[in-house]
Amino acid sequence: MALGLAAAAVAQEAPPPPGPTPEETPAPTEVPAPPPPVETPPAPPAEAPAPAAEATTDATAAVEPPAIPAMQPEQYMGVPEYMLNIDLSTGGRVVIQLYPNVAPNHVERIKQLARAGFYDGVKFHRVIDGFMAQTGDPTATGQGGSQLPDLKAEFNPTPHLRGTVSMARAESEDSANSQFFIMLQPRFALDRRYTAFGRVVSGMQYVDAIAKGEPPAVMSRMVQVSVAADNKPVPPPSMLTETPPAPPAPEVSVDELNAPIKQ
């Protein structure tokens, strides 16, 4: 399973991390394209990362679960059972409306993993400014996933707008497992190529504050992920903070090394 957003600053010989890539996702005509991020492995600088290698899971082949009846908007819009709460280390709660009408199996997978505590503490390992923030890998390498079987793609017409939440995958269309990404800006070229399964309805400012990088120097994390129907309270503010990188050690000059020792 792996996310479809391609790797960024990873060693040339290492397989690219899963996930969508800026180059494969040109910005819509009505929205100016953000400057392409500089990529190392498969994508050249100023272009999007290439699709990443798929994550290791117990199942090697995608499994197609039994069909789930289509739902009507009144059955899921604003219904707590189909709302996901993500409490971020950037300071607050992000609320996501899930779309079981277009991606029922992916929605069930996200809810299942959230209720198992799988996502708690997981970091955003790949965040491209003006593109997307990718998470869902407990190893924070872009190559990890859950022990559940990979999912069969549920590509749908939901546009990849700002705030859209979509499943990452490897090169295979049926390799989504646990990794997902949140769009920072629209990229309609991802439509029908990645399974969109929800959209942020509040707290987007906390998504915008996620540390950027591939990987970031200090990775922002999902402190707690829960289904709204479970009524889990927001963690205390002391938990919704990030540890800043340690300042570099001051340089010692030759003069300081030769200075007399004070008694």
Strand content: 15-25%
Following the backbone from N to C, one meets helices and strands in this order, namely HEEHEEEEEHEH
Structural class: mainly beta
Radius of gyration: 20 Å
> Order of strands side by side in the largest beta sheet?
3-4-6-5-7-2-1-8
What count of helical segments does DSSP give? 4
Counted beta strands: 8
Coarse morphology: elongated
Oligomer: single chain
Termini Cα gap: 63 Å
The helix content is under 10%
Average per-residue pLDDT, rounded, comes to 81
**Which runs of at least 5 residues are low in confidence (pLDDT < 50)?**
1-16, 25-61
Most strands sheet: 8 strands, antiparallel
Write the layout of secondary structure elements.
Elements: H1 73-76, E1 83-88, E2 93-98, H2 104-115, E3 126-128, E4 132-135, E5 164-167, E6 180-183, E7 196-202, H3 204-208, E8 222-227, H4 254-258
Antiparallel strand pairs: 1-2, 1-8, 2-7, 3-4, 4-6, 5-6, 5-7
How would you describe this protein?
The chain has 263 residues and is mainly beta. Strands 3-4-6-5-7-2-1-8 form an 8-stranded antiparallel β-sheet. Residues 1-16 and 25-61 have low confidence and may be disordered. The longest helix has 12 residues, at 104-115. The chain contains 4 helices and 8 strands; from the N terminus they run αββαβββββαβα.
